[in-house]
Amino acid sequence: MKYNFTLDYFQKSADYILSKIDEKPEIALILGSALGGLSEQIENPVVIDYKDIPNFLVSTVKSHAGKLIIGKLNGRTVVCMSGRFHFYEGYDFEQLVVPIRVFKLIGCKATILTNAAGAINTDFHVGDIMIIKDHIKLMGASPLRGPNVDELGPRFFDVTDMYTKELRDLAKNCAAKLNMKLQEGVYYFHMGPNFETPAEIRAMRILGADAVGMSTVTEALTAAHCGMKLLGLSLMTNMAAGILDKPVDGDEVTETGERVAKDFSALLAEIVKEI
Ligand code: HPA
Predict the structure, then answer these.
(1) pLDDT at 36
(2) Which terminus of the chain has a lower count of CB atoms within 10 Å, N or C?
(3) What pLDDT is stored for residue 82 in this prediction?
(4) pLDDT(34) > 80
(5) Residue 195 near ligand 1, beta carbon < 6 Å
(6) What residue owns the CA closest to ligand 1's atom 3?
(7) Cβ(86) to ligand 1 under 6 A?
């Protein structure tokens, strides 16, 4: 067995972070590629490098900052990850539990996850934001594989309502206040780093998916295991492979992220205020 995590392992990271802050965060924010701008709005931030936190993971992606930012956003204390961890970088699924478990131990009651995704549902448009209602992960191991940490949650756990209905409704109300329209649908986890083939996208659509991406589900499952409220939001940065007569382009992902960043951040800030 490669990993034998105990509560102590995560508590070490948590204790280090708690020694650097005066107020415990209530909400954890993990922002997807090109959607990280919101972290700049955090007031009086305490910034901690991942590499300084004992037992935390270290970023492999150069463009990802690799910092925790803790402070006030719209009156609420939040912890925000600037740079998240993905399976495609080379981590094992089992390692990807680390950030959420540490956030649980420093006091977070809710997690908001955002990501860039390809739209599979042909009624969706590039630039749409989708509330994740449910997900499909048929590839690879569960991040909860291995010895269970009983103090955090049960060995076998229910994921019927893991994307908390109360938070999905709250997101819809916040969007209405800002005159924004949100989609709602099913996120399909693809391990990456290649985008999908057109045949894979057709298969995913038949299976009931509305969008596809390479992140989020490991964090979502970890949050569900330790009983945190959870909201997932996907930005449709591109139509998925084979829908349009053109290849999937990584630059389009970044450009759409930048174009929608302001509205997306305004929505997130409103949600944080209302949670
Ligand atoms: N597929 C997978 N991940 C993605 C995509 C996509 O089309 N767009 C942004 N992230």
Answers:
(1) 78
(2) N
(3) 84
(4) no
(5) yes
(6) 213
(7) no
- Ligand 1 in reach of 116 Cβ (< 6 A): yes
- 190 CA: nearest ligand 1 atom: 2
HEC secondary structure over the chain: CCCCCCHHHHHHHHHHHHCCCCCCCCEEEECCCCCHHHHHHCEEEEEEEHHHCCCCCCCCCCCCCCEEEEEEECCEEEEEEECCCCHHHCCCHHHHHHHHHHHHHCCCCEEEEEEEEEECCCCCCCCCEEEEEEEECCCCCCCCCCCCCCCCCCCCCCCCCCCCHHHHHHHHHHHHHCCCCEEEEEEEECCCCCCCCHHHHHHHHHHCCCEEECCCHHHHHHHHHCCCEEEEEEEEEEECCCCCCCCCCHHHHHHHHHHHHHHHHHHHHHHHHHC
User: 178 C-alpha vs ligand 1 centroid, how far in Å?
Assistant: 27
- Do you find a cis peptide bond into 247, omega within 30 degrees of 0? no
Is the confidence at residue 62, as pLDDT, over 80? no
Closest atom of ligand 1 relative to the 248 alpha carbon = 7
